[in-house]
From TrEMBL:
Entry keywords, A to Z: Transferase
Family membership noted in the UniProt record: Belongs to the protein sulfotransferase family.
Enzyme class, broadest EC rank: transferase
Designated name of the protein: Protein-tyrosine sulfotransferase
Annotated InterPro entries: P-loop_NTPase, TPST-like
A Pfam family reported for this protein in Swiss-Prot or TrEMBL: Sulfotransfer_3
Function of the molecule: Catalyzes the O-sulfation of tyrosine residues within acidic motifs of polypeptides, using 3'-phosphoadenylyl sulfate (PAPS) as cosubstrate.
Gene Ontology cellular-component terms listed: Golgi apparatus
Catalysed reaction, written as an equation: L-tyrosyl-[protein] + 3'-phosphoadenylyl sulfate = O-sulfo-L-tyrosine-[protein] + adenosine 3',5'-bisphosphate + H(+)
Annotated coiled-coil segments of the chain: none
Domain of life from the UniProt record: Eukaryota
GO molecular function, one term: protein-tyrosine sulfotransferase activity
SUPFAM superfamilies: P-loop containing nucleoside triphosphate hydrolases
Length: 221
């Protein structure tokens, strides 16, 4: 006798606007564990973290390049800054939504978008932000080995450390300004050494009650 298997209900897409979207943004300096965090969150059944969308950083760069005469013309046309900001927010939201299957929580990971952390916090008032940070010496060594960011040589580690500091300090300030209820700084070293404790602390900020065991297992892969 044939017994049909129970149908699995497909997750439905949730209507979202930039003002209401409870997105999760992951960012920070390169080589700080943003990829690890993305994989861990993606293992949770309620969260979907897609691949890294380079286009969001490009649109943020473009938005903040509007200066001088171009800005004055946009102001006179009545489209700056409100219409510009609405367009940027809608664009980013649509990219995040279309990067994978529907899920209750959508996640966006692109490290250097956190150069605009304060702006993202303004565009998405319901979003949560995970700032990954790692010992600067380890970051520099990893970035040089992997060829990320400006091409520093092995004899230019001091210059690379200065760049790390210039990037990280403003992000820390922006995260503090956004507030601990919405922005959490996660140290890569602690996440690796005390995975369960740090993950529980993280999910306390995200206000997602259940921690899937799959997330904790991802760190051991």
């Amino acid at each position: 006798m044939y017994i049909s298997s129970p149908s699995v209900e497909e997750p439905q897409e949730i209507p979202r606007t930039p003002e209401t979207a409870e997105l999760i943004f992951i960012g920070g300096h390169e080589s700080t564990g943003t990829g690890l965090m993305r994989v861990m969150l993606d293992a949770h059944p309620l969260i979907r973290c897609g691949a890294e969308p380079m286009v969001t950083l490009e649109i943020l760069n473009m938005r903040h390049s509007i200066k001088g005469v171009r800005r004055q013309r946009a102001i006179k046309a009545g489209v700056y800054p409100e219409a510009y900001d609405q367009a940027v927010a809608s664009f980013i939201l649509k990219v995040v939504e279309r990067m994978g299957s529907p899920a209750p929580y959508l996640c966006h990971k692109q490290p250097m978008t956190f150069n605009y952390l304060g702006y993202l916090g303004y565009l998405f008032p319901k979003a949560k932000f995970i700032h990954m940070i790692r010992d600067g010496r380890a970051v520099v060594a990893s970035s040089i080995t992997r060829g990320l960011g400006p091409k520093f040589g092995r004899d230019q580690q001091h210059e690379a450390l200065k760049r790390w500091e210039r990037i990280v300090i403003p992000i820390l300030r922006d995260c503090q300004d956004i507030g601990k209820a919405r922005c959490i700084t996660v140290r890569y070293e602690k996440l690796v050494l005390r995975t369960e404790d740090e993950t529980r602390k993280l999910f306390g900020t995200l206000i997602i009650c259940s921690i899937s065991i799959a997330i904790l297992n991802k760190n051991g892969d």
